Amino acid sequence: TDDVVKYIRFADPVVEQICATNWGNGTGITSEQAAAVTTLGTSFKGDTDITSFNELKHFAGLNNLSRAFDGDTALASAELAPNLTLNGGAECAFQNCPLSHFVAPNLKIKGRAVGMFYGAGHGGVLDLSSWDVSEAGDMRGWNNGIFMNSNFDEINISGWSFYKDQISTTNSNGGSAFNSCKAKRIIMTGVTAALEGLGSLFANCTELEEVVGFSDIDFSTVIAIPSLIGSTNIKHWDFSRNNFVGLTSMERAFGSTPNVESFNFGDYGFGKNATTWYVWLHYGSNYQLRKCYGHLDASGATASFPAFNNATLIRRIELRGLGTHAN
Q1: In which element (H, E) is residue 15 found?
Q2: pTM of this prediction?
Q3: pLDDT for residue 325
Q4: Euclidean distance between CA atoms 33 and 21, whole angstroms
Q5: How many angstroms separate the CA atoms of 223 and 251, rounded?
Q6: Considering only CA atoms, which of 223, 257, 217, 261 is closest in space to residue 239?
Q7: Average pLDDT of 2-16?
Q8: DSSP 8-state secondary structure symbol assigned to residue 57
Q9: Which residues, 6 or more positions from 201, have their beta carbon under 8 angstroms from its beta carbon?
Q10: Which residues have a Cβ under 8 Å from the Cβ of 21 and sit 6 or more positions away?
Q11: What is the pLDDT of residues 259-314, one digit of tens each?
């Protein structure tokens, strides 16, 4: 009959009980009741029993996910409603959740997103290419970057737009969005970046084998890149199209890159405005580096230039077109 209440059917009974108790009538919750919810608060935070919440897609009015599922160490599947705008952010929203299935179409984040997927994931692909983070707050952190320690095989952030120090800073101690993530592949096709620093962007990403689209990003606003690529497993880095013309510092730019075999710096005068090139190949761990192609312009260098400080294990490097002050 028309009087029959149509409750949402949940796969996880623990989730169903929490929803019915907090936002339903104690017995169940309707789609209309779910759509009226704007925040989940801490109702699910630290719950180690829930395993799936695909019915989250019925909660179409959510505007805040901060710490909503933080510490839910059994949560493997979640689906958000399309076109959500999180004015309150998503800080540590899915921290340490072993997600293998995650859907959130056209999500827009306006608040902080630091730690959102910290320690999350259990293989598979995290496709966030439909997201809008152009107005999001901080996503970096030495202790809790948005993807730090995550365990996804692939992370897709194609089309994202970054600004200033949103995902990294001008020093190597400010942390980054990808710090220590376990991804083998990161897709950055079509990313736009009005960033100032790329410090430690891929620090400790030891399993990273490919960053799709990175070579096509315009980094003309970037002024420093300390420890940019860290100990990734990528053999060849091509910077020939990145337009790194705004660099004012090359200090420690490519220190501790034990798996790199070659760099291509292009012909636009990589580093031509950098005043310091202090130990830009530092720490003696560039074990596999053989060749550097392109034009490195150190003509503006005013600081000391022990370029290969402690890099005693480098076997052979071809430097083509290196600026005359690179001594």
Answers
A1: helix 13-23
A2: 0.92
A3: 43
A4: 12
A5: 11
A6: 217
A7: 89
A8: G
A9: 167, 168, 176, 177, 178, 225, 228, 229
A10: none
A11: 888 899 999 889 889 998 887 876 556 667 778 888 888 888 886 555 554 444 44
